[in-house]
Amino acid sequence: MRFHADCSRIVGCLAAVIMITSLAGAQGHSTSVLVLNKDDNALAIVDPLTLKVVATVPTGVAPHEVTASDDGRWAYVSNYGGFGPNASPGRTISVIDLVLKKEVQQVDLGALRRPHGIAFEHGEVYFTAELNKAIARWHPGTNQVDWIMGTGQGRTHMLFPTKDLSKILTSNVDSGTISSFERSSEPSGWTATVIPVGKGPEGGSFSPDEKEFWAANSGDGTVSIVDTASKQVVQTIDVQTKRSNRLKFTPNGRLVLISDIGGGDVVVVDVPGRKVVKRINVGRNAEGILIEPDGSRAFVAASADNKVVIIDLKTLQISGEIHTGKSPDGMAWVSR
């Protein structure tokens, strides 16, 4: 009898341990939406379930874009710098510990000025430097900028790496071009192709299969569709935006969302049909777009209204909003 009682106690203890471990694992997994508030010089960390701001972390001056490490521990913010006769162009990247919820470093980029587009890929941080007409790479492990590549194009604004990092595309707003960098056997390790598109390309996105790149042209209300194999524009769609800002594909590749900073709309394009199917007004100065990885929702920054608007992508209706701070713009999804 004692043997059976001891076994019962052991089994009970094991069950308790398993339950506690399972709960700890469930509690340890979390998701967040990161939102940059440009006029607050801060990063807001938002719970995507409750839609509440759980923390606000100071950054450098006028943060514009944010990316996160694959493990969800770190966020990297491009500090663009202020405008005006007495303002200095930004020259730093903020490193934010998302567990401690604090900035732990501002990376000095030296002569590289106005960092903007930013992406964490294969353990390193890639970014644009607008005033230098260049893209560059910073290595978190060595704390060094270890690679710089010039574009020779005016206002290299955003960058778009492929999943395997074999290609990096950039939008060059003032030149009206997309630069396509492709790994090669050249001494630099890359070949560059300049692709003329519409006027003022700013936002853009690869299709999920990376066979196409869509460039949103802020100056003429069009979208240029680039075939990534031939590196040529194969179609131009007139979406009639006043000043397009960002463009994102849904994960299934069926829809493209374009934020119109001039009109305050999110323009929804049916990808197979190559046509606009809806315009959703989100407020003043529609800017950054973030699409949830499961494709259920889109978060769109209405910068002049100091809010982020949520769009249900099944109904294409507004389902909520979050007031994160002053002039929200760049966003990122974090899972850890």
Order of helices and strands: HEEEEEEEEEEEEEEEEEEEEEEEEEEEE
**Helix vs. strand class:** mainly beta
The number of helical segments is 1
Distance between the termini: 47 Å
| CATH class placement of the domain at 245-336 | Mainly Beta
How is this structure best described in words?
- It is a single chain.
- Helices cover 8% and strands 55% of the residues.
- By secondary structure, it is mainly beta.
- The protein has one helix at residues 2-28; strands at 31-37, 42-47, 52-58, 63-68, 74-81, 89-97, 102-108, 115-121, 124-129, 134-139, 144-150, 156-161, 167-172, 177-183, 190-196, 201-206, 212-217, 222-227, 232-238, 244-249, 255-260, 265-270, 275-281, 286-291, 297-302, 307-312, 317-322, 328-335.
- The protein has 1 helix and 28 strands.
- The model is unreliable at 1-8 and 10-27 (pLDDT under 50).
- A hairpin with a 5-residue loop joins strand 24 and strand 25 (297-302).
- The strands form 7 sheets. It has a 4-stranded antiparallel beta sheet with strand order 3-2-1-28, with no helix packed on it. Strands 4-5-6-7 form a 4-stranded antiparallel beta sheet, with no helix packed on it.
- The protein has a domain at 245-336: Thrombin, subunit H, CATH 2.40.10.
- 43% of the residues are buried.
